[in-house]
């Protein structure tokens, strides 16, 4: 092994030294963390249930629902199931606390607000909002529920902070099912884009941001982009490969006849066709992040365009088209396309930063689902869906805070390692875990992860980057 790799390996393993301070007094910090949330519950029993449920969401349970959490804690399940599924407590004040904490701790003027729908497969038709609808994660129409989520991304961290459940028109008009699932009378059918704007109205002025972004499901709708533009928001949204555009910067076609007249315009073409015909010199390569498996390098191109993202719906406003491409491990090229109202003079580095933020929200979903049971709910009611979702978002935020704190001593520490350490602490009394064992187990996992990262980079003759220490 070359000396430079030996030195880097030694430094990476040094960053895996787990300080006992990371896990010291973690339960006390969890209790303090919960105070501004549980104070919104009127009854002592509800406050206790909220604390119990938060702890259960961060435990080592395979399925983190009310029944499993109650049994694990030796509690009677009906009380906790009632608290989640039908008790009349308002989740909105808890979201306001969460948004305020996120803004205070990781908020930056260059932050990015991300809107992203996420689907949950569900059988039957009795659970609130279940219908045959587009489930993006599956890439097809299937039976399930869909929530639209608001995420926040800064250079410090990324986290989901709010959500809305989507009700189809058919579901919203079904009085019998509405009553059965407890849907409030004032709730009406709203599109995913209308729900996103509702969350932006509620939280946009609290979360410092320079951009709004989202996937192609959000970006394909013209009126949504125009509404954001009219509100003074700067956006960058993914759009489908079959989006048609007229390139305003490319060479124009020649006159087909002799004589004067207006310069002919370029025809509309799909962004896929447009990108395929770009000359190689039109692409610029930038590195937008140091990924776990190596630096993520993109080739990017941008042009001023007029877009047609919906049938017979041509934008009257100039937008910026951004195309990215990167080579996959099998040698093929992956292309993505984005529309923005940013200035044509915007740097590719800044545009690439926002593209990265749009992708990072997928990591936020993975974290919330794997570490805090976001998708593990077994409730059918309107209240139950929101109660579980919001408490899961809050639990994820606690784990993120603890990981940020832990990096002061152990730069390689991750949210999953924090959650696993906390789960061991919660089980101390019944499995004999002690602080030394918790530190040893976390170090063993971190060493394994960092060695895998080290050798992955070395195969490419690159030095794996060290973890940044706050």
Write down the oligomeric state. single chain
Largest sheet: 13 strands, mixed
| Class of secondary structure makeup | alpha+beta
Q: Strand content of the residues, in percent?
A: 15-25%
Please tally the β strands and state the result. 13
Terminal Cα span: 31 Å
Q: What form results from the Cα inertia axes?
A: globular
Share of residues in helices: 40-55%
- The Cα radius of gyration reads 25 Å
Poorly predicted residue ranges: none
User: pLDDT average, as an integer?
Assistant: 87
Order of helices and strands: HHHHHHEEEEHHHEHHEEEHEEEEEHHHHH
Number of helices: 17
Folded structure, characterized:
Helix 3 (44-57) packs across helix 4. Strands 1, 2, 3, 4, 5, 6, 7, 8, 9, 10, 11, 12 and 13 form a 13-stranded mixed sheet that branches. Strand 9 and strand 10 form a beta hairpin. The mean pLDDT is 87. Among the domains are: 1-19 and 411-470, no CATH class; 92-232 and 365-372, no CATH class; 239-249 and 266-350, no CATH class. It has helices spanning 3-14, 26-38, 44-57, 66-72, 77-85, 92-106, 169-172, 175-181, 192-203, 216-219, 222-230, 271-276, 348-372, 382-406, 415-426, 428-431, 435-459; strands at residues 112-121, 131-135, 140-153, 158-165, 211-214, 235-239, 244-247, 269-270, 284-291, 294-310, 313-314, 319-327, 333-340. The chain contains 17 helices and 13 strands. It is of the alpha+beta class.
């Amino acid at each position: 092994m070359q000396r430079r790799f030996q030195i880097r390996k030694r430094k990476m393993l040094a960053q895996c030294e787990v300080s006992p301070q990371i896990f010291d007094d973690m339960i006390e910090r969890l209790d303090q963390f919960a105070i501004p949330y549980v104070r919104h519950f009127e009854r002592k029993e509800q406050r206790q249930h909220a604390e119990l449920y938060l702890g259960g969401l961060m435990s080592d349970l395979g399925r983190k629902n009310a029944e499993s959490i109650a049994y694990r804690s030796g509690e009677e399940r009906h009380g906790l199931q009632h608290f989640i599924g039908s008790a009349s407590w308002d989740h909105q004040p808890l979201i306001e606390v969460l948004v305020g904490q996120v803004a205070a701790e990781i908020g930056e003027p260059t932050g990015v607000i991300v809107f992203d729908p996420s689907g949950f497969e569900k059988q039957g038709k009795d659970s609130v909002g279940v219908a045959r609808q587009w489930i993006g994660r599956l890439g097809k129409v299937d039976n399930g529920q869909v929530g639209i989520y608001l995420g926040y991304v800064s250079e410090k961290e990324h986290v989901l902070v709010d959500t809305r459940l989507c009700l189809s028109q058919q579901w919203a008009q079904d009085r019998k099912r509405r009553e059965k699932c407890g849907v409030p009378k004032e709730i009406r059918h709203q599109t995913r884009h209308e729900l996103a704007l509702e969350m932006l109205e509620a939280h946009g002025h609290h979360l410092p941001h320079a951009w709004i972004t989202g996937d192609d499901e959000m970006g394909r709708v013209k009126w949504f982009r125009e509404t954001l533009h009219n509100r003074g928001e700067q956006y960058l949204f993914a759009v489908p490969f079959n989006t048609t555009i007229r390139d305003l910067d490319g060479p124009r076609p020649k006159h087909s006849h002799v004589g004067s007249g207006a310069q002919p315009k370029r025809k509309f073409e799909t962004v896929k066709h447009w990108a395929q015909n770009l000359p190689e010199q039109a692409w610029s390569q930038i590195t937008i992040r140091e990924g776990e498996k190596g630096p993520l390098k993109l080739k990017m191109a941008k042009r001023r365009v007029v877009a047609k993202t919906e049938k017979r719906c041509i934008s009257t406003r100039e937008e910026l088209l951004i195309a990215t491409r990167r080579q996959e491990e099998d040698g093929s090229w992956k292309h993505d396309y984005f529309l923005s109202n940013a200035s044509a003079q915007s740097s590719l580095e800044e545009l690439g930063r926002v593209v990265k933020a749009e992708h990072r929200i997928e990591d936020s979903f993975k974290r919330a689902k794997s570490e805090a049971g976001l998708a593990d709910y077994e409730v059918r009611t309107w209240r139950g869906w929101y109660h579980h979702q919001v408490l899961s978002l809050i639990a994820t935020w606690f784990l993120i805070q603890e990981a940020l704190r832990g990096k002061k001593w152990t730069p390689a520490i991750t949210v999953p390692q924090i959650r696993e350490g906390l789960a061991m602490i919660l089980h101390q009394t019944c499995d004999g875990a002690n602080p030394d064992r918790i530190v040893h187990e976390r170090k063993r996992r971190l060493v394994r992860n960092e060695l895998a990262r080290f050798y992955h980079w070395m195969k490419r003759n690159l030095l794996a980057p060290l973890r940044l220490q706050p």
